[in-house]
Amino acid sequence: MPTSHVIDYQIKGESIQIVEVELDPLETVIAEAGAMLFMEDGIVFETKMGDGSNPNQGLFDKLFSAGSRLLMGESLFMTHFTNRGNKKAKVGFSAPYPGTVIPVELSRCPGQELIVQKDGFLCAAYGTQLSIFFNRKIGSGLVGGEGFILEKLQGDGKAFVHAGGTVIERELNNETLRVDTGCVVAFESQIDFDVESVGSLKSMVFGGEGIFLATLRGTGRVWLQSMPIRKLIQALSPYGSNSRKESSSMLGGLFES
User: Fold this and answer.
1) Is the CB of residue 130 less than 8 Å from the CB of residue 163?
2) Alpha carbon distance 219, 191 (integer Å)
3) C-alpha–C-alpha distance, residues 105 and 219, integer Å
4) Counting runs of H as helices and runs of E as strands, what totals does the chain give?
5) What are the φ/ψ torsions at residue 64 (nearest 5 degrees)?
6) Which of the 8 DSSP states describes residue 209?
7) CB 151 within 8 A of CB 189
8) C-alpha dihedral over 217, 219, 221, 224, to 10 degrees?
9) Which of 52, 188, 49, 166 is nearest to 116 (CA)?
10) Diameter of the chain by CA atoms?
11) What is d(CA 169, CA 226) in angstroms, rounded to the nearest whole number?
12) Are 52 and 46 in contact, with CB atoms under 8 Å apart?
């Protein structure tokens, strides 16, 4: 695996964050298609099939990699932004929905790899390798794909992951943590991850927490999000739980036209 480009960055904003990457001449950052917010003079971009971490990759390997990205619900292509000018220049990236940008130094992760939810990757230094990660746990495979297909980031440089709402970083020390499914953003590869049924039938039906919870066991870092896109859509839906709260309000509908 090649050494990743060393990039400088700044995260801006609070509840809806962006990442601004500063590139030296000939430095490159890779990003999801459509993530670019702005780019300064001197930055050029090229859409490629794959992350470019292996320049000698053959056509079959490129097609396999592209097919893997389709399984994760991502675009076939990634965009490579390179500074072709003779001075430093910046390019900015924003995520598709409100939330937090998490910078991760992959060289600090055991095995220089990080497991990320399938729509969590935003951008990374050139040289970072992205691949599909199948969770072989039976429980996670039975829950409509929750946690079954994940994404693996490998490299020794900076990677940026997007999460919904507020982010919590937890350090597990031979511990077990149970989390609402969908709220797991990323975890180090030595963490054991599964999705398990919990509670009694009564709590499953009336508790409001769902039938399954994600379970993380072991020693290492995990990142959690307070508002995954699934919950955000439900909250904004006219038929979601918030609509019932509004209609039951004492003044609800009183001043509607």
Assistant:
1) no
2) 6
3) 18
4) 5, 17
5) -65, -45
6) S
7) no
8) 20
9) 188
10) 66
11) 12
12) no
Domains and CATH numbers, the chain: 8-243 (3.60.160.10)
8-state DSSP, 49: S
Are 49 and 130 in contact by the 8 Å Cβ rule? The answer is no
Q: Is-contact 48 130, C-beta < 8 A?
A: no
Q: What pLDDT, on the 0 to 100 scale, is given for residue 197?
A: 72
CB atoms within 10 A of CB 30: 26
Q: Identify the CA nearest to 167 among candidates 209, 225, 110.
A: 225
Query: What phi and psi values does residue 160 have, to the nearest 5 degrees?
Result: -125, 125
Q: Among 215, 126, 136, 208, which Cα is nearest to 179's? A: 215
pLDDT digits (tens, 9 = 90+) for 7-37: 999 999 987 899 999 999 999 999 988 899 9
Block residue for tokens 């597990």: 172
C-alpha span between 18 and 10 (Å, rounded): 9
pTM of the model: 0.79
Give the tens place of pLDDT for each residue, 193-233: 988 776 655 555 555 555 678 899 999 999 999 887 777 67
Q: Look up tokens 């309000």; give the residue.
A: 249
Spatial distance between the Cα atoms of 78 and 84, rounded to a whole number of angstroms: 19
The rounded distance, in Å, linking the Cα atoms of 138 and 141 is: 5
Cα–Cα distance for residue pair 154/131, rounded to 1 Å:
8
